Amino acid sequence: MGVAGSTGPVMDRDEVDRALARLGAEHEAIETSLLALQDHAGRRLLEGAELTGSTQERWTAAEASITLLWAYFDAYTDALRSAREIRSRRRWSSREDLVELTELLRGRSVTVAGSATATANVPTLSGAGKLSEQFTLAELVERMNELYATSLDMVVAADAVWSALPARIDLLAAELQRTRQLAHSVGVRPGEHPAGDDLERITRTLTSLRERVVSDPLAYWVRAQGSSAPGGGRPDTSTYDREARALEDVRREIDAVLTVRQDAEARLVKLRDVLSRADRTLAEARSARGEVLAKIAATEVPVVSGPPTVLQEQLAAAAEYRRHAQWHRLSPLLESLEQKAEDELLRARESLTAVTAPLAVRAELRGRLDAYKAKVARHGLAEDPFLIERYDAARRMLWSAPCDLRVAEQAVLRYQHAAAELLSTGVPGQSGAGQPQDRRGPGA
């Protein structure tokens, strides 16, 4: 180690050789990186594109950075060449050579000449706008790394957006065109059907999106949180994804219209059948209401309304749409009619059930009366006068018209109670194994 100078201790021959080897490796790595940046597809696209917005601003700075990078690299190359020439003068470098090499390798010996125009567009540089700057080789490498990282970040981000979005937009636009043709074939047009309006809006959005992506790709770049690596982030595809989903919704709607075109006749036939069944059920309910009013007394029987004419009118309109191949209008009408027809059939059935409920109650009372009579007969008590009297009273009420259901039910209950008492005690009017109360005397 020699006497210290302005750059510190004078380097010996081994230190010089190690420093030259390290600087040579750095030189090769920097040159490889710069050539890769120069040949990067994203950089070539940026050079030939008509840019706008933030991409234009950042590319102006990146171009200045790349120009400055090469100027720095040339100065670095010259300094390294000079050091190698000094070292190669003699096998054993003299002290003067070592002092000169120490100054060159460690001191601010590299002067980069430039202009204010060349450096003014590099906002990351603290000395931007200077006519010339002096660096040590280590400082120069650090400065080149900084410029390279910011330039590469911008180039990689723009290239990633261009690689991801325009091709996908073009594919979606082609699918959109096929969907438009299909929609036109089934009558789905702007101003006539909501799906047609959606197709127009999607077309405008995709056209605008592609134009902006091409001219300002960095507007669609989302930087990764906490990442400082060049190109750390992802393309923002939210607008594209939203329009792709909207197109899928339109495509499903058009598929539904196509399905209507294929099975419209079968669905219309089924609709007519459902409405016909509803009408027949309502007619049956009206007829049953007259029967109930004639046969059942003191009962409130609900009024049965007639079939709604609006459904028949809509059914006729649906048939007209099918005749004129207006599938986009037929599709929603059929869906609405099918639901309304099922609701109408359900309403008719509920009306019939409500109207015939008294007859069902009378039938249930008749069945219960006959069931107890059969039970009594199985126990050999069918000839009991008390039971016969109560049975006949209940039967006259249930088989006469008009029938008062409340009175008839009480008569049936009285017969049930009498039969139950007789079956349990053998004595009518006896609720348990107590004192007999048979009018026919103890011998009975």
Written as H for each helix and E for each strand, in order along the chain, the element string is EEHHHHEHEHHEEHEHHHEH
C-alpha termini separation? 146 Å
Kindly report the oligomeric state of this protein. single chain
Q: Taking all residues together, what is the mean pLDDT?
A: 82
Task: Estimate what percentage of residues fall within beta strands.
Answer: under 5%
**Gyration radius from CA atoms, angstroms:** 50 Å
Could you describe the largest sheet, including whether it forms a barrel?
2 strands, antiparallel
- Secondary structure tally: strands: 8
Query: What share of the residues lie within helices?
Result: over 70%
Count of DSSP-assigned helices: 12
Structural class: mainly alpha
Low-pLDDT segments, ≥5 res: 1-6, 429-444
**Number of domain modules:** 4
Strand order of the largest sheet: 1-2
Shape: elongated
Keywords: Coiled coil
Region (Disordered): 425-444
Coiled coil: 247-288
